[in-house]
């Protein structure tokens, strides 16, 4: 499958702005991102690329003083994937002094209670973004307080499977990780193998239509954009055990009221919410 590679150069450039652009593009079928030389590269399957939608998105950015220049070209998956795999080394990240996430080629890796190896291969989820980092922190806190109650886990929109992997390392016996993009799902399976979790973390390609098959969960994780969360939240809750936890991120502080309203309408109670650089993580309990 060929992809459209969109190169975006925001001025002034910052890692935070690159993350924001990636989050804004994700709902438009951009499933892979990388940054290099103050340029964000976003990848969209060629058959889903919509240049008009891209132009409209960039023309309506909610930021003053930001200019974004862009260009697009078609690339073969095997070409950019091979180049990425040859060069990917990201700075190890330590979460809550307990978990270190690093690439297979990282050096000087800090020693932590949980060691997570991730080869992103252009998929979202190395732990650096605020949404992923905050969910990782909440997973650690949850299992520190009561590991035995969260043995069955569902991770929706798993990406690299970093959340699913940490849940398994913390003690979950069965983790089901669902990813809509087949190529990203393959990457998630590779990461599961890198962490010796075959059998405990099972990756499936699909979306919320896979739910409702009789499997039940103590913990559901969903790091997806607001619209998908609002659309699919009821399906997550339908498979959540009584007293179970739903953790969600991928949306802004301004989106929290509508997320909470939707959650309340389907029997969820807000346990806590917090934000970092406007990105929110919300934790709900099923009645």
**Number of helical segments with 4 or more residues:** 8
- What does the radius of gyration come to? 18 Å
Q: Major beta sheet, specifics?
A: 7 strands, mixed
End-to-end Cα distance: 44 Å
General shape: globular
* Poorly predicted regions: none
> Could you estimate the helical fraction of the residues in percent?
25-40%
Classification by helices and strands: alpha/beta
Name the helix and strand elements from N-terminus to C-terminus, one letter apiece. EHEEHEHEEEHEHEHEEHEHEE
* Average residue-wise pLDDT: 88
Strand content: 25-35%
For the largest sheet, list the strands in their spatial order: 10-9-8-11-12-14-13
How many distinct beta strands? 14
């Amino acid at each position: 499958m060929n992809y459209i590679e969109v190169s975006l150069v925001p001025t002034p450039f910052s890692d935070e702005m690159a993350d924001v652009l990636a989050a804004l593009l994700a709902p438009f079928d951009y499933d892979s991102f990388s940054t290099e030389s103050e340029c964000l590269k976003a990848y969209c399957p060629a058959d889903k690329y919509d240049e008009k939608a891209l132009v409209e998105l960039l023309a309506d950015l909610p930021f003053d003083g930001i200019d974004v220049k862009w260009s697009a070209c078609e690339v073969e998956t095997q070409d950019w994937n091979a180049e990425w795999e040859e060069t990917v080394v990201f700075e190890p990240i330590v979460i809550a002094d307990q978990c270190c996430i690093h690439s297979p080629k990282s050096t000087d890796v800090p020693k932590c209670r949980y060691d997570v190896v991730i080869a992103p291969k252009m998929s979202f989820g190395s732990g650096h973004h605020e949404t992923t980092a905050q969910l990782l922190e909440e997973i650690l806190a949850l299992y520190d307080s009561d590991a035995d109650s969260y043995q069955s886990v569902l991770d929706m929109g798993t990406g690299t499977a970093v959340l699913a992997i940490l849940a398994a390392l913390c003690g979950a016996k069965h983790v089901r990780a669902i990813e809509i993009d087949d190529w990203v799902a393959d990457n998630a399976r590779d990461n599961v193998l890198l962490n010796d979790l075959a059998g405990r973390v099972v990756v499936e390609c699909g979306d919320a239509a896979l739910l409702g098959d009789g499997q039940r969960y103590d913990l559901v994780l969903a790091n997806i954009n607001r619209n998908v969360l609002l659309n699919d939240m009821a399906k997550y809750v339908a498979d959540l055990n009584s007293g179970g936890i739903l953790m969600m991120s991928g949306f802004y502080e301004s989106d929290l009221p509508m997320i909470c309203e939707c959650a309340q309408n389907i029997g969820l109670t807000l346990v806590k919410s917090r934000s970092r650089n406007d990105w929110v993580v919300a934790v709900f309990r099923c009645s």
